[in-house]
Every structure is written in structure tokens, then in C-alpha cells.
Design goal:
155 residues, 2 domains, four-stranded antiparallel sheet, disordered C terminus
Length: 155
């Protein structure tokens, strides 16, 4: 009877270890499979190199959850309206987007300092496209995040 309890205990522990190892392997595979695709290769020739650099830096920081840093890329008037603390809290919910790809880019024909980068986001729950707006102000490219205070007809 005591021997059966010991065997059961060892079998149970072995099963726990096996499940943990499988969990780690599949979790790691899932994380490697779903990463941001921060790349603009087919668009780089038509875009300002400074925009390409800012775009890549912004999304790499976003992926890491470094919202203190992404805040610095946002439009100055938006930083005036929203504190860094508010911004960080707002952005925390955005981490659910596990993967994205650039679907198209549109340069405003009337103002070359406004560029729309259309991004297809997806995770295991949903897919959607978002228009990522970048505006060049005094020679610097800024990201426009979706603002919840001011309505925007042209976002």
C-alpha cells in the first residue's frame, strides 16, 4: 500500500514536470511566432529615411512596452493634452496586438509632411486595420495616437 502511494506520487510529479516542459515549449513557440513585423522594405525608397527610422523605433519600443519612450514620439499638442502617466495607462491595453504587417502607405498629396501607414493587426482573437498617422513638424516626424479627448474628422 505504501509502495503504491510512493509510485503514485512519483508518477504525479513526473506528469507535472512533463506538462510544465510542454507549456514552456509551446509558450516560447507562440511568442516567437507572434512578434511585430517592424519592416517597411518595399516602401523605404518612397519614404523619408527619418520617417522610416522613427516608425521602426516607435514600434520596437511599443513592442517592449516602453511607453515612457513611445510618448516622446507623439505629437507635441497631444503631450500637452495628456500626461505621460495618462498615456502609459491608455497604452497598457494595446499590448494585446501580437502581430502586425504594413498593408499600404499613403502620402498626403497636398502635404508631403503627412503620411498614413495602414497596419493590419491580428492576434488569436481578432484582425483589424488601423491607420497610423505620422506628421513632420519642424523637421521631426511625430506619431499621432488615437486621441480620446478631441474628436478628429481626419484621423
Amino acid at each position: 500500500m505504501k509502495m503504491n502511494k510512493k509510485i503514485s506520487l512519483y508518477v504525479g510529479l513526473l506528469l507535472v514536470v512533463i506538462v510544465a516542459v510542454f507549456g514552456i515549449v509551446f509558450y516560447d513557440k507562440f511568442n516567437k511566432e507572434y512578434k511585430y513585423a517592424i519592416s517597411l522594405p518595399k516602401y523605404e525608397k518612397e519614404l523619408d529615411p527619418d520617417l522610416v527610422k522613427s516608425f521602426k523605433e516607435y514600434w520596437e519600443l511599443f513592442e517592449k512596452g516602453e511607453y515612457d519612450e513611445t510618448y516622446e514620439y507623439e505629437l507635441p499638442y497631444q503631450k500637452f493634452l495628456h500626461s505621460k502617466k495618462w498615456y502609459k495607462n491608455f497604452m497598457l491595453g494595446s499590448k494585446k496586438h501580437l502581430k502586425f504587417a504594413i498593408s499600404k502607405i499613403k502620402i498626403d498629396p497636398e502635404n508631403k509632411n503627412i503620411v498614413y501607414i495602414y497596419i493590419k493587426f491580428h492576434n488569436k482573437y481578432k484582425k483589424f486595420t488601423q491607420r497610423d498617422k505620422w506628421i513632420k513638424v519642424d523637421g521631426i516626424w511625430y506619431h499621432k495616437f488615437i486621441d480620446t479627448i478631441l474628436p478628429s474628422l481626419d484621423y
